[in-house]
Write a structure and sequence with these properties.
Blueprint (H helix, E strand, L loop, with lengths): L2 H93 L8 E5 L4 E5 L1
Antiparallel strand pairs: 1-2
């Protein structure tokens, strides 16, 4: 055997052993990365699920608050209309030079009833 043949033999054996070690390392590394990604994605899934549940709960509370406010607004509008109607009648009566009377007497005529102020 010559020296060149011996170098090639040992060189090939070292190369195949290094390749086998590299494949083993690559497989372990890929497995570790896969497990890490699995844990990371699981954590993100749980976090997003909790966020959605809490946002739905907050949305329900806000919806109830909006409904309560709408009912309050409706109640206040009715009350304002009731107060404005009495004030409007009084204002129109004063603008037309009308006089409020204490007692009204109704007299029946042939055509119908009329009121007399005294």
């Amino acid at each position: 055997m010559t020296h060149g043949t011996l170098i090639k033999k040992y060189g090939r054996r070292e190369t195949s052993a290094e390749a086998a070690a590299g494949r083993t390392f690559g497989a372990h590394f890929a497995l570790q990365v896969g497990v890490l990604l699995l844990f990371l994605l699981s954590f993100l899934y749980v976090a997003e699920t909790n966020a959605v549940l809490f946002s739905e709960r907050a949305t329900l509370h806000k919806h109830e608050a909006i409904l309560g406010a709408e009912l309050d607004v409706t109640r206040l509008e009715v009350e304002a209309a009731r107060l404005q109607s009495a004030q409007e009648v009084q204002r129109m009566a004063q603008s037309g030079n009308m006089v409020f009377v204490d007692g009204v007497t109704y007299v029946s005529l042939s055509d119908g009833s009329v009121a007399l102020a005294r």
